[in-house]
Amino acid sequence: MGFGDLPPIEKTQAYLDAAFKKARERSREYNLSEKEKNPLSREKTLAILKIATVKDYLSSRFNTIIDKYPNFDNLTEFYTQLLKLTLDFKQLKKSLGTIAWSVGKIHELSTDSIRRIKRCMDPSVVGEYLRKYYGRIGSVLRQAEKQMIHLHMMRQVMRDYPSIKEDEFTVCIAGFPNVGKSTLLSKITPAKPEIKAYAFTTKKLNQGYANRAGRKIQFIDTPGTLNRLEKMNPIEKVAYLAMKYIGKYVVFIFDITEESYSLKDQTKLFEAVKRYGKPIVCYLSKTDLLSDEQIEGFTKLFEKKKVELMTDKDDLMAYLWEKLG
User: Fold this and answer.
1) 169 confidence band (pLDDT: 50, 70, 90)
2) Which residues pair with 56 in a beta bridge?
3) What is the spatial distance between Cα 249 and Cα 271, in angstroms, rounded to a whole number?
């Protein structure tokens, strides 16, 4: 699922200006029949045309917003929890409800105004009905303006949500920042994540896909340190949810050069990730900087923990392809 194509939310005055402009243009382009050329018929025809144009334009724009935003009853658990963690979920529903209310009011006012105009027998009064209609439509949108501003701000957050294929076999790559998660992702998939030599560099979920003989593994590089939920920043919360609801396996990366984090801290984080209850395979990064003795000593340590430990990316992929079946 992706949120990148959510339609923009404009200022209410922009919607009104565009709708009224279209109404003027349509009335200028409309060819009156002979029957419609007497003053009363002319005013009625053009006024009704303008009202219908305003109604159709605003309804179309607002219904597109309603249709493009998620149906909360059909969301998967991952995206439901993601919305609740990163946004005011009640406010989001309220804002979308206000737009739906606006569509209803626009239809109601349009129907009422057209009915009044059809019954009117005075050309000057027809114009007054049209002006009142424009004013009432403007009032409806001004009442909705606060909620539309809220929705605009929430859209900015939702557009950055990852597009995760939840039906794919998914492996989450975990570990402290700067231990080699993005590097591993770039080696085992065609993904080209930005890699920088300092901590907390990943500002979004990096994703990649490995393909073999028609089979696919989806990899998610989870940023941050995945500490307690209340202490996580927004992108760490996304990583937490991906690991909890989507990941089938976790590849936990250790960097025993201790360049950025001590082995003690990395082991503590590893134990925390184990509590997610997902099968874990460990991967030793930066082996080119290690001696054979260091690698052997760490390997023996993990044999005691009865956890799979890989030092070669090809061995890791062979292991994961086997788990995919």
Assistant:
1) very high
2) none
3) 15
**Are the CB atoms for 68 and 74 separated by under 8 Å?**
no
Name beta bridge partners: 284.
Answer: 254
pLDDT digits (tens, 9 = 90+) for 209-227: 999 888 899 999 887 655 5
256: tokens are: 């025993």
Residues 57 and 22: their CA atoms lie apart, in Å, by 8
Q: Report domain 12-158's class.
A: mainly alpha
Q: Is 119 exposed, middle or buried (0-12, 13-18, 19+ CB in 10 A)?
A: exposed
Residue 149 is given by DSSP the state H
Domain ranges of the chain: 12-158, 169-324
d(CA 114, CA 49): 9
Q: What class is the 169-324 domain? A: alpha beta
Alpha-carbon distance of 325 to 315, in angstroms, equals: 16
What are the Cα distances from residue 39, in Å, to 7, 28, 42, 130, 258?
A: 42, 16, 5, 15, 87
pTM of the model: 0.75
Which residue carries 């606060």 as its tokens? 146
Domain 12-158 shares a fold with domain 169-324? no
- What pLDDT, on a 0 to 100 scale, did the predictor assign at position 200? 41
